[in-house]
Request: fold
Amino acid sequence: MTDDLERKKRLVAAWRGAERVLSRSLLEPTVGELLAELTAAAGEGPDEPADLYGDGVVTRLERRVAELLGMEDAAFFPSGTMAQQVALRCWAGRTGNPVVALHPMSHPERWEGGAVSLVSGLRTTAVTDEPRQPTASEVRELAEPFGTLMLELPLRDAGFLLPSWEELEELVAAGRDRDAVIHFDGARLWESTEWFGRGLPEIAGLADSVYVSLYKSLGGISGACLAGPASLIAEARVWRHRYGGQVFRQFPQALSGLAGLERELPMLPSYVAQAGVVAEALRSAFASAGVPWFRINPEVPHTHQFQVWLPYEAERLTEAGLRQAEETGTVLFRRWHPQGPAGLAMTELEVTRPGLSWTPQDITEATTAFLARL
Reply:
């Protein structure tokens, strides 16, 4: 445990000290820096009192999110896990069917500790086991009835994958043909507009409810919003209290979320475009260097995030990236994780504001320097 903590401290120190990065890690800001950002955000908005149990600035955030998504109402939650649990529970009560059809790589299945069944009393059924978005035919052919079809957009653990717009429309139609309601896990829905070629209201409008994150892609402190029909959101607020989410003061998260919507949301299309440039430059650099096997997944990023796979041990790759950051002040890759057969590792790349200045030549040079440290 001590070694892991020391490694984490070393990594964060190297990332903070780096001059060239594709994005800044959420681990980097200090308490003082975050408080300074909150003070600046408070100064840019109306002079208003701190919230009490979610009024004031929290209400302003909820209205803004509902407006952006074209939904009747939205409710703030301290976490996306709670927002999704409440949404799925509310829909199960309304449909009378506790079964949720989803992908086994989706967030409730992988990252919520079995809460769908243990806390919410629901049951899940897998639409497909393939590391991709499900198809409409798979939804139609599910053997048992289900009350809710949950689609994670993008599907993060499969490579931040999105269906095409036509495929998404067909998926939604297939779910409705099965008399199910549609819920979008849209933690990172904000950056999907470029891939779909549609605005947020049109995308969110396909679903009955949508959850969005305030820190993923937007860089807020924490928190999430659940958006949908006014009657559903009113019920969700009751369950939010029952789940312990009616926190006395929530203005820091709300202010940070509003700042992220103003600062980052308009920039996401440029981040997505630059991610395509970075992915192509990496592919060319790996091929030129004679790397025996590599994968950029997906080949053309659907969002401003994608996966990189290399045939080396994860620890070796992480150490090479760390030494590159310490010795050159450039961060190309951060932490790597063992995935698939032994000897394969994967990392996720994200392109944000700091990465917009990188040229293909910059990527090639950084990749060469990284490979030299393996």
